[in-house]
Amino acid sequence: MTNLAKEKIMASNNDIEQIRLTRLAFKQADLAFQLEMKHDYVEAIRLYKLAAEQNYSVAQSSLARMYEDGRGVEQDYAEAFKWYKLSAECGMTDDQYKIANMYDVGQGVEKNTAEAFKWLKLAAEQGHAEAQMLLGIAYTVGRSVGKDYVEAFKWLKLAAEQDVFVEQIVAQYELARLYAEGKGVDKNEEEAARWRKLADTQVAIGQFKKGYEFDLAHDYAEAIKYYKLAAEKNNALAQFNLGLIYEIGKGVTQDYAETLKWWKLAAEQGNAEAQYQLGVRCSKGQRVKQDYAEAIKWYTLAAAQEHGKAQFNLALNYAIGKGVEQDYAKAFKYYKLAAEQGVAKAQCNLGVYYELGYGITKDYAEAHRWYMLAAEQGDAEAQCNLGILYEFERGVKQDYVEAIKWYKLAAEQGHEKAQYNLDYMKANGQGTVH
Which long-range contacts does 85-88 make (Cβ < 8 Å, 24+ apart)? Predict the structure, then answer.
């Protein structure tokens, strides 16, 4: 056997051994994580260490975290730094950022701003949003590096385009400032306004979420505070919820003018529920002047966003010609859209259209299908209509027992026609009435 052949075999054996060790390290780290979740920190550290010593970066990072937090071992920033650095050198982006922070404040290592900047840039180059944001600010203020607005703009733009909440917001505001002042980029008020608006939108989302948490916890004063902050930044959900709070009077005096104000703002931004609620109030003249044309406008906008109740109300208006010219074809269209979304009344009315042939060909089988869907949701009118189909053999085999079953369910809800039909069948001995 030649020396070259022997070298190839040795190299192959080394590769196999390395694969074996890597797999072992992976298993050790996985088991360590499971033990950590069970709060067996001492055993978790032992296994993390075994895996970390095989240069497995995930284990090195986990071990560093254990030393940093002092879990299962005495807190030791120097030891944490050691393992974070090994992991960072393997390309772990979060740990590169961590090392930058430790160098910056001198935690577990002597303070070194040059090293901090080096690791911050490495993390930023790998797409770490917070590192990009801080690097951009560093170039803006000249911290650890000379001022360079072009570089600042570059890194802030990368951070601003990331989907990482806080870092994205800070970067967007900073980017807006650079555009407004013409630093690192041509002065552009339009772009400055655009980035400012994007940041405001993100802030408003956070404020809305905070308000919603307080709302669920019944702390309405705090909910109103955060909803207002978000609503004033044009967050439509916050505007709608704020309107609802004033409508119900949760933690505040009922104020229908405030309700309508916030709902109109939300509706104008495309909030379907606000559009629907405005439509209802315009149609009924609730706290506003009755205006069917205005109601149709809001219903149409909400219906276009697949709001089932708006589609149903729009269908009703087309069916009777309220605020619009009577149009059975359009009524049918909107009843069907609402029915397909599970609106029981729409399913029932769609059944009527199929049964009686309003604007379409009569189809008892389809009438039966839609009545059944509505009846199973407890709609009394559909239950009664279903009874009629079974009693008079329309699209189904005549079945007095089924007819009585559905009449009875509708009658129990106070449906007069169903009660009359039930009494009539009983008087004529049709089926069995209990």
Answer: 86/52, 86/55, 86/57, 86/60, 87/57, 87/58, 87/60, 87/61, 88/119, 88/122
Query: The whole model's pTM is what?
Result: 0.69
CA of residue 219 relative to chain centroid, distance? 23
Q: Which two tokens stand for residue 90?
A: 């393997």
Q: How far apart are CA 337 and CA 264, in angstroms?
A: 25
Q: Is the pLDDT of residue 181 over 80?
A: yes
Structure tokens at 126: 């790998």
Domain boundaries, the chain: 342-434
* Token digits of residue 205: 């989302």
Span 265-322, pLDDT tens digits: 999 999 999 999 999 999 999 888 999 999 999 999 999 999 999 999 999 999 999 9
Q: In this predicted model, what pLDDT tens digit does every residue of 4-34 receive, in sequence order?
A: 444 444 445 456 666 776 788 789 888 888 9
CATH architecture of 342-434: Alpha Horseshoe (1.25)
Please state, in angstroms and rounded to a whole number, the distance separating the CA atoms of residues 28 and 387.
68
* Three-state DSSP state, 13: helix
Spatial separation of the C-alpha atoms in residues 177 and 295, rounded to whole Å: 43
